[in-house]
Write the structure tokens for this entry.
Amino acid sequence: MDASINTPSHGGQVFKASMRAQWDTAAAGWNAHTADIRAWLQEPTDAMCRMAGVRPGARVLDVAAGAGDQTLAIAQAVGAQGHVLATDLSPAIVALARNNAARAGFAQVETRVADGEDLDVPEASFDAAVCRLGLMFFPDPLQGLREMHRALRPGGGVCTMVFSRPEKNPCLTILMSTALKHAGLPARDPFIAGGLLSLGQPGRIDALFRSAGFHGVATSALDAVFRLPSVDHYLAFVRGSASPILQILAGLDAAAAEAAWHEVRERLMVFTTPDGWAGPNELLLTAGRRPKEAT
Ligand SMILES: C[S@@+](CC[C@H](N)C(=O)[O-])C[C@H]1O[C@@H](n2cnc3c(N)ncnc32)[C@H](O)[C@@H]1O
């Protein structure tokens, strides 16, 4: 995405409209890959819920919930006496989350279309808040964290999951560098606001948590290898998601785009093992709590 559209002068609204459109388009693809995503993120998701303080009977806010995979895990954990509000910018993906929760029989799940930077939920109305692989897409992640802080009751906990540094997420850097090369575009700053790796710079997310008013802030890095039967399964996942490279390659003619995909495939083949394809990723889980006393 073009950094020039992401300026405070218009509150990132153009950026967000583009993000919403991309996720509306990608909603069905993301939902179709739920089983793969669940297997990939199961362990970090369990840790995220633990670190946020998700427990039976809790009221939990799920920000940038997507098609609701982690929402269902939270609904299971809070039980029928608890409550989960799953929110997302994309109406199409929220509709899928709603259907998924209804099909699973979770009456404790409520869904709502909402910008994570402007949640419109009552002050101090949740015991815990989570955001799985969403906060890095916010043009103003500090505002997103302030909203979660406001939504939490004093003493309530938050935990977010984002990608860490570029060197630890080589599949993402291969995708981006190959797409930019084929599009004849210069390399981009991986930490630019709103990008996939934007919160991966060491210390950055902790500083944002503290600025938002959270106490007891701590980040853990977790290896999360994406295991799939083959590189082609990973490419199908990428092509069905809202990867930023889709936008970059959209400007190329069909033959040039195919050449780019071909090179991406060749480069990603290095992660093929005797047991299938295993793409390394590192995630950051950051936890904090709204202090009991007012800040
Ligand atoms: C990679 S998906 C993750 C979805 C889900 N949490 C999961 O892990 O399956 C990123 C999600 O962030 C949402 N998103 C991006 N910017 C947002 C914003 N400003 N406010 C709320 N949601 C946003 C997208 O619509 C998308 O559903």
